[in-house]
Amino acid sequence: xxxxxxxPKYLVTQMGNDKSIKCEQNLGHDTMYxxxxxxxxxLKIMFSYNNKELIINETVPNxxxxxxxxxxxxxxxxxxxxxxxxxxxxxxxxxxxxxxxxEAFFGQGTRLTxx
Amino acid sequence: AQKVTQAQTEISVVEKEDVTLDCVxxxxxxTYYLFWYKQPPSGELVFLxxxxxxxxxxxxxxxxxxxxxKSTSSFNFTIxxxxxxxxxxxxxxxxxxxxADGLTFGKGTHLIIQP
Lengths: 115, 115
Known about the structure:
heterodimer, A: mainly beta, seven-stranded mixed β-sheet, 0% helix, B: mainly beta, four-stranded antiparallel β-sheet, 12 strands, globular
C-alpha cells in the first residue's frame, strides 16, 4: 500500500504545453511538499502546503502552481513548459512543520522531459 | 540562511570496506533536525535517519551508524562492511523551519561499492 503516490512516473511533452502531476498520500499527514531534482541530482524545495497555507520558494517561477483539492492531495500544475523544466519532481508529506517534523515520505518521482 | 555541504561528490570502495560519508551543515537556529536519505539507482528517496539538535547521541542501525557533533556542525554517516546493494546516492538534509519549510538538501554523495 503506497504511502505517497505520484502519477505519471514519466512525462514527455513539448515546449509551451501545460501539464499536471498528481500526488496523493494516505498517511494522514497534514503537510505536503513538492521538490525538484535537477540533472545534477540537486534536490530543492519548491512548495510546502499545510492547512491551506502555501509557502513558496522564492526561486520558483509563477508558471508552477500547486493545487490541493483536499488534505491528501497536492497536485502540481505547470504552464508554458520550458526546456529548463526538465527534471524529476518529487512529492512528499510529513507531519505538521510547526511541531517537530517527522521524516518526509517521498513519492517515487515524476521524470518530466520537455522537448 | 541554512546550508548543507557534502564535499564528497563520489566515493568508490571495494565491497566489505567501511566507508564514511561526510555532512556539514549551517544554520542559525538552535532547534533543527538532520536527516539522511538514500537514493538507489531506481530513483526513489528512502529515509534512513532523523536526528534533532538536542540529541547528540550517536546511533547505530545494523551496518549503519551516524556521528552527530554539534561542535563541528557535522552529521557523518558510516557504512560498515559495505555491500554492493549499498551503492546509491546519499543525501544529508537539514530542517529548521522558515522559508518554504521543507528540507534543505546537500548535493549528495554517489557511493559506488565494487564487488
